[in-house]
Structures are given as structure tokens and as C-alpha cells.
Specification:
By secondary structure, the protein is mostly beta strands. It has a single domain, classed as Beta Barrel (Porin). Helix content is 5%, strand content 50%. It has a 14-stranded antiparallel barrel with strand order 3-4-5-6-7-8-9-12-13-15-16-17-18-19. Strands 1-2 form a two-stranded antiparallel ribbon. It is globular, with a radius of gyration of 21 Å.
Length: 357
């Protein structure tokens, strides 16, 4: 978990203090050979799946479907799909509010020849105890032993912040395969130290059948290097996500039903969040379902390797939509559930509505 409460259990080499390693992410079979000497498994986690409550409620799936103003985070190849410009505002509270994340993104599909997507994501933890100077370390082993204590007046507090800027582009009116690309800038602040990095993503999408779509997302294709003010370099290894979306209609009642499934792979060693591990390759799966009761309401559910289930619902109106997602705990009862709320504004409809008023 980013910026976890400092403890005396595991060490972060960059800063010389110990943190809990419970960062939660989502991973498929990466076929590219890697030769990286300073990998940091979770350095690029901010950009993995920060998006909207629709995707979160469906287990985190999204590479094969559009997400209005959040589409660039899931697959830049889809930002040129025909839909009106939109703006999304989203807020997520993880682990009982310990970690808070915010997203602002806009999609502009009507520019001449190109579609552009801009996104800004922020995640942070406040008031993290720094116990480095508070340990009454009698034997000098750096651990909190049974006969030792923390001197509370020596505990200091700091904040952890991550900011990310995403810029995505794609050609409009592509036939057959659709392609798009993203550039992303990440900034991290932790215990007075600064880390900056730059990365690139590629996305592809194709409709295989009127009811079946395939999406592919290759993230950090050149690796993403984060350079810290301490002199440390962190490398985020490439990862690839492949997903399918199937659109059906429930017989008799004629309710639209969408089914999505994805797998993500990487070669950065053993990870907690995986469906299976084979050497350095880890694979994670996600599934999701959405049922549209009518033009104004949808129910969603999903599951991923790390979470037993996710749930959510959406309310759609002509000028905006509101979506909510609930993510269960990890099953180990260690963390509180996650909640996310998204507000999407449809800019053309909103402008017409305000102009008519």
C-alpha cells in the first residue's frame, strides 16, 4: 500500500525506514524478454487502473470497452470512438479511507483527424508516522523487540503523494484494428524526497463480431524509469493486458447484458496479487458483468484475483451520469472495503441544456 504506516517489519532502501508491503494491483503473460537491474514492482501502480467506478464495479475490467472520459487510462485506441466530449470526476477511498485517490479526465473525440484524451490522477496518504527516531533500540538491531518501546514524543508525521498526468492520442475513423498511444508523467513525494518518471503505453482494439470486441493494452512499453532525489532509480517493467467484451440481450425482458474478461501478465517476479506464478511470470485475471435495466440504470458486478467480489450501479441522465463501486476486502480481513464514486458530464448535451435554459 502506498505510504503505509511505518513499522519495523520491512525496509525501503531509498529512505532507510520500514513499511508494510501490501500494495494492491492487478496483473497476464508478458512475452517480452526483460533485463532490468532495479525493478520496483509497484512504482508504476498509479497508472494501472485508476479509472472510473464503472470499471471498478466490474472487477477492474475495461481494456475492450469505452469509458467515456476515462477511456485513455484503459485503452487509448478507443478514445476516437464516436461519442461526445465528456469530463469525469472520480474519488476513491481505499482501506477504510487510509488511501484516497482522485481522478479528473476529459476526452475530445471531435478534433480534426485526431482524438485526444487528458487525464490527471492523484493518490495520497496523510499523517504517516515516522518511527525511525522513536525506537528505544537497546540492542541496536533496528527491530522493536519485546523489551523495547517506541518513544511517542519522538514520532514524526509526513504525507505521501503521487501525481500522474496522462496524454493519449488516436486517429479517428480507423477501420479494422484501432490503435492509440499514451504518454504519462509521474511524480512521487515521500518523506521529503521527490521521484519523477516518464512512461509510454500502446493500445489496440478490434471488433471481432458485432457482439464481440478484443482489446490489448501494453503498458510501460519502454519501461518507466522513476528517478528519486536520493539517487535511486526505480524501473517499472512492461505488462500486457488482453480482454474480451461480449454484448448480449437477456431473452424475454430484452435487457442489454455485457460480459468482460481480462488477463494481465508481467515478468517482474513473485507478486501477492496473481492467479498463478511461473518463474518470474505472474498472471492475474478479472471478470465483470453489467446489466442495463433501462436507459437510466445499470447494475454491475465482478471479481478479480485479489478481491472476492465487486459491486456497483450507475444512474444515467441526458447531461450526466453517476456511478458507484464497492470493492470487497482481500478476504483476509486485513483492509476495509474500497468505495469509489464517479461523475461524468456529457459536455455537448450539457451545453445545449444550459443554452436552452
Amino acid at each position: 500500500m502506498p505510504g503505509s504506516v511505518l513499522s519495523h517489519e520491512s525496509r525501503v532502501p531509498s529512505f532507510g525506514f520500514r513499511v508494510s508491503p501490501g500494495r494492491l494491483v492487478l496483473p497476464l503473460l508478458l512475452l517480452l524478454p526483460l533485463s532490468l537491474t532495479a525493478q520496483a514492482k509497484y512504482a508504476g501502480e498509479l497508472f494501472e487502473f485508476p479509472g472510473d467506478a464503472r470499471s471498478v464495479a466490474m472487477g477492474g475490467t475495461g481494456v475492450a470497452s469505452t469509458h467515456q472520459a476515462a477511456t485513455g487510462f484503459y485503452n487509448p485506441a478507443l478514445i476516437g470512438q464516436p461519442h461526445q466530449p465528456s469530463l469525469i470526476l472520480a474519488h476513491r477511498e481505499q482501506f477504510g479511507g487510509v488511501v484516497n485517490a482522485d481522478l479528473v479526465a476529459a476526452n475530445f473525440p471531435h478534433l480534426p483527424g485526431l482524438a485526444i484524451h487528458l487525464g490527471l490522477v492523484r493518490r495520497g496518504v496523510d499523517d504517516i508516522p515516522d518511527t525511525r527516531s522513536a525506537l528505544d533500540d537497546r540492542n541496536g538491531n533496528g527491530l522493536l523487540d519485546d523489551d523495547e518501546r517506541l518513544i511517542t514524543e519522538n514520532i514524526r508525521y509526513f504525507n505521501q503523494r503521487e501525481w500522474g498526468l496522462l496524454i493519449s492520442v488516436a486517429r479517428k475513423n480507423q477501420l479494422g484494428w484501432h490503435f492509440g498511444a499514451s504518454a504519462k508523467i509521474v511524480g512521487q513525494w515521500l518523506a521529503g524526497e521527490l521521484g519523477m518518471g516518464l512512461g509510454f503505453d500502446l493500445g489496440a482494439w478490434r471488433r471481432l463480431h458485432p457482439a464481440l470486441s478484443l482489446g490489448i493494452m501494453l503498458q510501460d512499453i519502454t519501461t518507466t524509469q522513476v528517478h528519486w532525489s536520493t539517487g535511486r532509480w526505480e524501473t517499472t517493467a512492461p505488462r500486457i493486458t488482453t480482454g474480451l467484451r461480449l454484448d448480449l440481450t437477456v431473452p424475454v425482458i430484452n435487457w442489454p447484458l455485457a460480459l468482460e474478461g481480462e488477463i494481465t501478465s508481467r515478468l517482474d517476479g513473485e507478486r501477492l496479487e496473481r492467479s498463478f506464478q511461473l518463474g518470474r511470470a505472474s498472471v492475474l485475471s478479472r471478470v465483470g458483468v453489467a446489466l442495463s435495466l433501462n436507459d437510466n440504470m445499470a447494475l454491475r458486478a465482478g471479481s478479480a484475483t485479489l478481491y472476492p467480489f465487486t459491486l456497483g450501479m450507475g444512474l444515467n441522465f441526458p447531461a450526466f451520469s453517476v456511478d458507484y463501486a464497492f470493492v470487497s476486502d482481500t478476504g483476509a480481513r486485513v483492509f476495509e472495503p474500497t468505495h469509489q464514486l464517479s461523475l461524468t458530464l456529457y459536455l455537448e448535451t450539457l451545453r445545449e441544456f444550459l443554452g436552452a435554459g
